[in-house]
Design a protein that fits this description.
- About 35% of the residues lie in helices and about 30% in strands.
- The chain contains three helices and four strands.
- It has a four-stranded antiparallel sheet with strand order 1-2-4-3.
Length: about 110
């Protein structure tokens, strides 16, 4: 929980680098157009200067597994990531994914 709190804090407070954050956010959003990631719906994507926070709803565990297998390859970034998944009573799931900008690391508690 400390790691998620730290990542959320950075996502809220980090300055925006418009040369990177706008195109990075647009690239993430484009991956959800059409039926490329069937069963997964982008709820939110926000990129700052060195970090993106992506929130995705999945209709079931199969959609979540497919997303985890396909999204990184489709995005094509050489990045560090951290994910937190909440599974709902109806079998659907929400994934919060944190991605670092290429050349940067994700913040870690106590470091």
């Amino acid at each position: 929980e400390a790691r998620v709190a730290l990542l959320d804090q950075q996502a809220r407070t980090e300055r925006v680098d418009p040369r990177w954050s706008g195109p990075a956010t647009a690239q993430i959003q484009a991956l959800f157009s059409g039926d490329k990631l069937t069963g997964s719906t982008l709820r939110d994507a926000t990129c700052q200067a060195t970090l993106c926070r992506i929130e995705v709803d999945h209709r079931d565990a199969l959609a979540l597994d497919r997303f985890l297998g396909e999204f990184p390859a489709r995005l094509g970034w050489n990045t560090n990531s951290y994910a937190q998944t909440v599974t709902h009573e109806d079998g659907s799931a929400t994934l919060v994914l944190y991605l670092s900008r290429e050349g940067y690391r994700l913040p870690r508690p106590g470091v």
